[in-house]
Amino acid sequence: MPEPQATIRRGFVDVAEGQVHYRTAGSSAAAGPPLVLLHASPGSAKTLEPLLAAFADTRRVIAPDTLGNGDSSAPASRDAELSYFAAAHVRALDALGVHDFDLYGTHTGANLAIEIALSHPERVRSLILDGISLYSEEERTDMLTHYLPDVQIDATGSQLHLIWHFVRDAYLFWPWYRRDKEHRRAIGLPSATDLHDKTLEVLKAASTFHISYRAALAYRKEDRLPALRVPTLLACSATDMLIEYLEKVGGLLPQARQVTTPGVGSPEAARRTAEIFEAFMRSPAPAKV
Q1: Is 200 exposed, middle or buried (CB count within 10 Å of its CB: 0-12, 13-18, 19+)?
Q2: d(CA 93, CA 191)
Q3: Peptide bond preceding 50: is omega within 30 degrees of 0, i.e. cis?
Q4: CA–CA separation, 77 vs 80, rounded Å?
Q5: What pLDDT score does 284 carry?
Q6: Residue 235 forms beta bridges with which residues?
Q7: 20-40 b/e with 16+ CB inside 10 Å = b?
Q8: 176: how many CB neighbours lie within 10 A of its CB?
Q9: With bands split at pLDDT 50, 70 and 90, how would you rate the model's confidence at 28?
Q10: Nearest 5°: phi and psi at 157?
């Protein structure tokens, strides 16, 4: 992950479960509504720092850690569904005094963004879904069975080794547990520092990160996407393993625009990606009912 140049501040806001941790950049005096960024699983909003930095000169940007992830408190239930996590994000935004906003979500964050846009369409000015799956029933069952490792916290530190390889192997294979030639990814590993940083974010929530992740894997977005009425951009990086689903998702949301982005793998790529998103948010296409 490139080192952001803009000032990224961090804070906590009180919610019923405890506190939600968030990162923010830019100024509240910036023109236009704030932009809310929702992160992928596993990890935290730290992975969104390149976009936070890229948008800092044009608008206020807020990126919360989902409950049970990063530095946010654990969810109230270990069996919570995705709608619960989406509602928790809205409660955190309420506590921050944020009412109207543009909304971006990637992977798990995209699923959460769908639910927020469905439950609060009057508050979401525009919606960017960056990298979104559309699993078959067989794929969904397989991932619910195998994707989330059984992390046990023990005195030998086995959790450190397990989570390091869980994070690392997701860059090498998709899904990460299919370690064979057929499932090999061609993107290579990020730097050791980036792997270390992401592993630390997952380790912080070793006992709870799987709750929202499982909810996202079980989420039937094929039933929810057609109900969206918010102007939507379907985006995906060319190197994202979920790009194979982009056209299928577009078929469920024909009113949405579609775009392939350079991603955020370098400061220049993050800047160009932010420009694509900014152009859409300045003049989002009207939603069709």
Answers
A1: middle
A2: 33
A3: no
A4: 5
A5: 81
A6: 130, 259
A7: bbbbbbbeeebeebbbbbbbb
A8: 19
A9: confident
A10: 75, 25
The full 3-state SS of the chain, as one line of letters, equals CCCCCCCCEEEEEEECCEEEEEEEECCCCCCCCCEEEECCCCCCHHHHHHHHHHHCCCCCEEEECCCCCCCCCCCCCCCCCHHHHHHHHHHHHHHCCCCCEEEEEECHHHHHHHHHHHHCCCCEEEEEEECCCCCCHHHHHHHHHHCCCCCCCCCCCHHHHHHHHHHHHHHHECCCCCCCHHHECCCCCCCHHHHHHHHHHHHHCCCCHHHHHHHHHHCCHHHHHHHCCCCEEEEEECCCHHHHHHHHHHHHCCCCEEEEECCCCCHHHHHHHHHHHHHHHHCCCCCCC
For residue 283 the two structure tokens come to 């003049």
The predicted-structure confidence for 78-127, as pLDDT tens digits, reads as follows: 999 999 999 999 999 999 999 999 999 999 999 999 999 999 999 999 99
Cβ count near 125 (within 10 Å): 18
Parallel, antiparallel, or unpaired: how do β-strands 18-25 and 9-15 relate?
Answer: antiparallel
Residue 289 burial (C-beta neighbours within 10 Å; 0-12, 13-18, 19+):
exposed
Q: What is the pLDDT of residue 289?
A: 41
